[in-house]
Amino acid sequence: MSELNCMDIFLSLLRWSIGLSIGCIIGLIMALLGSYKPTSFFLKIINDFLRAIPIIGLVPVVQMNIGINEYGKIGLIAWAVIFPVWITVRNAIEKKLENSYLVLSAAVISNYQFFKSFTFPKILGGFLRGVELAIGIAWLAVVAAEWIGTFSLGFWSGGLGYKMLVGYELNNWMIVHISLLLFGVLGLTTAYIWRFVMKIVFEKNKSFNPIFKEITNA
Questions:
Q1: pLDDT at 168
Q2: Domain coordinates in residue numbering, the chain
Q3: CB-based burial of residue 77 (10 Å sphere; 0-12 exposed, 13-18 middle, 19+ buried)?
Q4: How far apart are CA 24 and CA 78, in angstroms?
Q5: pLDDT at position 43, please?
Q6: Average pLDDT, 10 consecutive residues per value, the chain (218 residues)
Q7: Residues 6 or more apart from 21 whose CB is under 8 A from it?
Q8: Which residues of 132-168 are buried (b: 16+ CB within 10 A; e: fewer)?
């Protein structure tokens, strides 16, 4: 149980993937809800309050209230991811693009066309920027989440963060250092893959909406 293996890498990657996906979806929903004026001020306060709570401080809370299971671990990863996506989408929605707005407002177009040409590219640009930030933050959260530990001998037993904690407790610094190195490699690899995919998707259509480009290049 104290030795690193490929299954530890796979489990950490799996938790990262699930937590990242859930957190990005929730972050997007919260940003969209906050775009309505009646809720925007209230949700901004909630955002600033919740994102100041350190994820490492939530580990004992999860252990006491949820127990040592995958729900708590994935929930912690999703928690850390929600806020960068929430903020980048919110900022993109609030970003003032006067020239583009005036041009489209002056044109005789339907509400759907306005959403497609102006609002949606802003939201998409902010969301993709948020995901890029969340990729690295999610890996930081994996470490804290896997420190919850595992008493299971089944499929979910293991993970790089868990093995790092075990290595520390056994005073085996080789495991600790290798785990840190692997986290760095995974973070670098996933970030590179994301940028590569985005480059392929959007460079094929070089005339893609300029509003999207302005948001993503900000």
A1: 85
A2: 6-216
A3: buried
A4: 8
A5: 84
A6: 80 96 95 77 86 87 84 93 93 70 58 74 88 94 85 76 87 90 95 89 62 58
A7: none
A8: bbbbebbbebbbbbbbbebeeeeeeebbbbbbbbbbe
Which class in CATH covers the domain with range 6-216?
mainly alpha
The span from the CA of 42 to the CA of 37, in Å, is 9
How far is CA 111 from its chain centroid?
31
The pair of three-digit structure tokens given for residue 169, joined into one six-digit string: 């407790």
pLDDT confidence of residue 123: 86
pLDDT of residue 29: 94
The pLDDT of residue 17 is 97
Rounded distance between C-alpha atoms, residue 172 and residue 170, angstroms? 5
Compute the distance between CA of residue 10 and CA of residue 7 in angstroms, rounded to an integer.
5
Q: Which residues contact 27 (CB under 8 A, 6 or more apart)?
A: 81, 82, 83, 84, 85, 86, 89, 130, 134
For 8, other C-beta atoms within 10 Å of its C-beta total 22
The residue type of 212 is F
3-state secondary structure at position 96: coil
